[in-house]
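User: Predict the structure for this protein chain, please.
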Amino acid sequence: APEVPPEIWLPFPLPEQEVVEEWLSQLRRAEGKKRRVRLLAPQRGERRALLEMARLNAEEGLREHLAFLHQQRQAAQQAVVELQEALGLPRLPLRIECYDISTTQGREAVGSMVVFCEGRPFKKDYRRFRIRQGRGQPDDYAMMREVLQRRFERALAEDPKFRDFPDLLLVDGGKGQVQVAVRVLEDLGIAQVPVAGLAKRREEIFLPGRGEPILLPPESRALRLLQAVRDEAHRFANEYHRRLRHQGALHSILDDIPGIGPKRRVRLLSHFGSTAALRQASVEEIARVPGMNRALAERVLQYLREEG
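Assistant: Here is the predicted structure, written as structure tokens:
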């Protein structure tokens, strides 16, 4: 936290100012500083002039920030309008949902759902899915099908977390992924959701029933919006996948250490978070984890370093 200064200038006196001064002085003493904090409200002279300059600078900074936010909102809204025109959508895509899959050779496979409302991220509605398929040869189409089925089945069941339908469903991929999305919606009797796919290699946009992809100019606001949504879905899926992969790696190694049962394994995982962090810890640090002792800590550390 920032250091508490011994003197703070205010544009006007505070109610119960002595109480605030005492509280700030306690914080300052906790930093090892003995001098009490004083709150001052200068009415004239150089101090008052400096306060006035600070006020004017703050107002100007706020105006600039609000103007920037307004410009961003306008640009996002214009991109939504251009996207409707570029894809021939029946309504403005005010709510765009994008889906992506992340996996390593079929292991710890996850799906992501990100939401943009009026051209901006709406993180409250982001969702993650842990793929339930068994291990084996990874099937991107089957994984996408599972994620979309689970999402829209819960919408049809009136789950409040999935209640809102998108104005545009975007998948990270080409014609095959688009066909998967269309088939899932058809099987569930959902007809009102337009589908599009954005393929990375040439940033081609695929639409159902259209033979050739759409290629928008690189400077197109509509394309940039689709790229932003797609990239955010990719980031969100990869973040979850990495977390599960790290947890899985730690679990699999700890499973092989004698004396480390499920409870100790969970405690070690919660405390250190990754194999690398546990391997770098000292015997004393591991022994301090609840349920551990020095002998077990030495065994864990020896095993990890031999395996690593």
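Residues 45-87 form the longest helix (43 residues).
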